[in-house]
Amino acid sequence: MTLAETKDLIEEVEEQLQGKPFVVAHRVNRDGRFLNLAITERLRRYARKGRVWKSSAFLTALKNAEYGFDERHSRSQGGSDGIFLLDRSFRPANEMMRKIFRSLHR
C-alpha cells in the first residue's frame, strides 16, 4: 500500500467513524494470519489534537502495520518491526510512552 492509498483509506474511515467507537480500516494476510487495522475515534481525536492526523509520519506508521506484529517483541522498547504494544504497565517507560501518556493528562 502506498502513502496515497493509506491517505485515501483514512479519509474513508473518517466518514465511517461518525457515531462508532472504531472502524476496521484494512485487513492484511501476513504469514497465514490476518491482521485487522482498526482506527478508533479516540485515536482520530488525539491525532487531530496533536496535529499528526494525515501527516506523513502518521500515514507511514499505518502503512507499516501491514508488515505484521511480532508477538515475541510486543512489549519491547521499540518493537523490531516498528509496531509494538504500548500501555502504562511497561517498564522502563520509553520516550514514546512519556509523550503519549503525558499528553493524555493535559
Please provide a brief summary of the model.
The protein has 106 residues and is α+β, with helices and mostly antiparallel strands.
Structure characterization notes:
- By secondary structure, the chain is α+β, with helices and mostly antiparallel strands.
- It folds into 2 domains: about 1-70, no CATH class; about 75-105, no CATH class.
- Helices cover about 40% and strands about 15% of the residues.
- The chain is built from 4 helices and 2 strands; from the N terminus they run αββααα.
- The chain has helices spanning about 5-15, 40-50, 55-65, 95-105; strands at about 20-30, 35-40.
- The protein has a two-stranded antiparallel ribbon with strand order 1-2.
- Helix 1 crosses helix 3 (about 55-65).
Secondary structure topology:
Elements: H1 3-16, E1 22-30, E2 33-40, H2 41-49, H3 56-64, H4 95-104
List unreliable stretches of 5+ residues.
none
Secondary-structure element order, as H and E? HEEHHH
Instruction: Please state the structural category.
Output: alpha+beta
How many angstroms does the end-to-end distance come to? 35 Å
- Rough shape? globular
User: For the largest beta sheet, what order do the strands appear in spatially?
Assistant: 1-2
- Number of domain units: 2
**Residue-averaged pLDDT:** 77
Q: What portion of the residues fall into strands of 2 or more residues?
A: 15-25%
Number of helices: 4
Query: What composes the largest sheet?
Result: 2 strands, antiparallel
Could you give the count of β-strands?
A: 2
* Rg on CA atoms, Å: 14 Å
The level of helicity is 25-40%
